[in-house]
């Protein structure tokens, strides 16, 4: 099963194209599409057709790529020579057969934070030029915002946003909430992110372009209809949707089993003299009398049997099991991985009892799920993915507790020098300083190095300074002078994890190597962490 969020987004994304350029849009009604003004402005000036292309699926499951001409286009005006707020609304004649996006309410306040993962979903030039026409997902992190001449732009980083994604929706991964649209990339060849237009500016532009459309988007009927499709296409309780047949079968089996035991319990009630049976009879009688004031014997008999059924211990126990099972399924934790991490191992700790935990792996679809019994209504659990920092999570009943690896888990702050016999140059035993700088917040960590040539492992989930690992390093250093070999081993054994570097995939760091005596710089390189294990060769022959 693919990521349900991607399956949710894909049918709602539109490829906007003309003779010379293309961009991305998305449906906000069944026949109206939101995109950026600069995507379509040249086509309007040159009076060339503007095409809206989207995927659709028929009853047989066959997928088709539909291409229509936009018969009506509304765009915002340029301001001081700049495309801002850079919003356009396209209209097609046919009704889009799938779900649409729900824009925020005007009164809804969107707060951008570094703790939330945002994704942009749209068409990139690489896929379009290759003829694939498949929308791409880009994960982004909030960096800040700028306000030039009253034009507010939100800045995101750590994602490669290529031309073609202009007009793509910016979505909070958790909660699937539109927070804006992509305005332009910051760099089309590096993972530097993008500028986006916040949702309040988008809504203001729509209101200026078409007051009737704005009123429709903000109406309660429209929002209820869209939310209904959201619940269908992106369910709140994915496990119940996946296993509803099993749950239904289990409930029916339990119900008929209770009916089987009920006559035995009722018939034996008056034949036994146990205190529990007498108590049971009193409860049944009381409940039956409470149902009515008539003293008709036949009716009271029916009432009493009804009460006996409702207060039957077998029935109550079965009801508890059924309700408990449903409760368990709506308090599940759903972990979504990626093909890059097919062997990810996770350890689940309940109630912060870190002395023991349940270990599981992602399945063949790069997913894992935990069934966590939740009482009371909110509870904390701890997840420790291999090679990542442990994270404490507030799991809430009645909400979709979905986590995404690796985005929701920070890398362990592991920085480790591993020397290789082929690389080592000791330069008369001179020592060096290895400096790691986090470019996001300018935090620095410095470490003693025995050589100016070696390798640095960042976020290596396999690093454990066990005797076996030390022996492996010793084998790499075979042939080296015993004193120097021991010095390297001592350096590795005493190496401590940095305290301030909190790395994640997509973060940028700068690696520098200085002479310890005169602080002269031998090596400097900017590195983008691309996965859990990034190998950095520290070599002074590289360009500083």
What report would you give on this structure?
This is Trypsin-like peptidase domain-containing protein. It holds the Pfam family Trypsin_2. InterPro entries: Peptidase_S1_PA. Keywords: Membrane, Transmembrane, Transmembrane helix. The chain crosses the membrane at residues 247-266, 313-336. By secondary structure, this protein is an alpha+beta fold. It has helices spanning 4-9, 37-46, 125-129, 199-209, 211-218, 220-233, 238-267, 275-290, 297-310, 313-329, 467-476, 482-494; strands at 13-17, 22-27, 32-35, 51-57, 63-69, 72-75, 88-91, 118-122, 136-148, 151-157, 169-172, 177-185, 194-198, 332-336, 345-350, 358-361, 367-371, 378-385, 391-396, 401-404, 415-418, 432-438, 443-449, 454-458, 508-515, 521-528, 534-538. It has a 7-stranded antiparallel β-sheet with strand order 5-4-1-2-3-7-6, with helices on one face. Strand 15 (345-350) and strand 16 (358-361) form a beta hairpin. Helix 4 (199-209) packs across helix 5 and helix 8 crosses helix 9. The longest helix is centred in the middle third of the chain and has 30 residues, at 238-267. The protein is flat.
């Amino acid at each position: 099963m693919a990521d349900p969020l991607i399956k949710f987004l894909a049918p709602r994304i539109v490829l906007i194209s003309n003779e010379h350029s293309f961009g991305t849009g998305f449906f906000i009604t069944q026949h109206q599409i939101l995109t950026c003004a600069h995507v379509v402005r040249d086509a309007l000036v040159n009076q060339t057709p503007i095409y809206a292309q989207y995927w659709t699926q028929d009853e047989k499951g066959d997928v088709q790529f539909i291409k229509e001409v936009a018969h009506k286009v509304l765009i915002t005006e340029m301001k001081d020579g700049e495309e801002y707020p850079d919003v356009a609304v396209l209209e097609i004649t046919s009704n889009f057969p799938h779900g649409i996006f729900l824009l925020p309410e005007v009164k809804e306040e969107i707060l951008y934070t570094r703790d939330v993962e945002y994704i942009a979903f749209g068409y990139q030039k690489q896929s379009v030029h290759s003829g694939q026409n498949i929308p791409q997902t880009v994960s982004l992190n909030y960096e800040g915002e700028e306000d030039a001449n009253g034009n507010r732009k939100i800045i995101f980083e750590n994602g490669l946003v290529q031309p073609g994604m202009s007009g793509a929706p910016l979505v909070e991964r958790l909660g699937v909430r539109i927070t804006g649209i992509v305005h332009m990339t910051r760099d089309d060849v590096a993972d530097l992110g993008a500028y986006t237009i916040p949702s309040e500016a988008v809504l203001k532009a729509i209101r200026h372009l078409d007051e009737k459309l704005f009123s429709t988007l903000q109406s309660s009927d429209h929002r209820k209809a869209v939310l209904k499709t959201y619940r269908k296409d992106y369910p709140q309780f994915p496990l119940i949707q996946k296993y509803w047949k099993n749950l239904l079968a289990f409930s029916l089996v339990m119900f008929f089993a209770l009916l089987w035991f009920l006559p035995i319990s009722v018939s034996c009630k008056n034949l036994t003299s146990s205190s529990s049976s007498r108590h049971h009879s009193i409860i049944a009688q009381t409940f039956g009398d409470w149902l009515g004031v008539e003293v008709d014997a036949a009716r009271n008999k029916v009432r009493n049997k009804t009460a006996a059924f409702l207060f039957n211990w077998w029935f109550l126990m079965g009801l508890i099991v059924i309700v408990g099972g449903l409760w368990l399924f709506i308090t599940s934790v759903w972990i979504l991985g990626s093909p890059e991490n097919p062997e990810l191992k996770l350890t689940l700790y309940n109630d912060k009892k870190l002395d023991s935990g349940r270990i599981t792996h992602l399945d063949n679809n790069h997913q894992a799920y935990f069934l966590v019994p939740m009482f009371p209504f909110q509870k904390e659990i701890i997840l420790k993915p291999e090679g990542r920092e442990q994270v404490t999570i507030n799991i809430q009943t009645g909400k979709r507790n979905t986590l995404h690896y690796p985005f929701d888990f920070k890398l362990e702050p592991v920085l480790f020098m591993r020397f290789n016999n082929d690389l080592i140059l000791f330069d008369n035993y001179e020592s060096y300083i290895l400096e790691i700088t986090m470019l996001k917040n300018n935090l620095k960590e410095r470490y003693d190095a025995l050589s100016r040539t070696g390798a640095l492992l960042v976020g290596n989930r396999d690093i454990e300074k066990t005797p076996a690992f030390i022996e492996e390093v010793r084998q790499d250093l075979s042939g080296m002078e015993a004193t120097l070999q021991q010095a390297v081993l001592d350096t590795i054994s005493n190496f401590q994890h940095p305290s301030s570097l909190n790395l994640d995939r997509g973060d940028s760091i700068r690696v520098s190597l200085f002479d310890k005596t005169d602080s002269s710089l031998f090596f400097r390189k900017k590195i983008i962490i691309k996965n859990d294990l990034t190998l950095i060769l520290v070599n002074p022959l590289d360009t500083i």
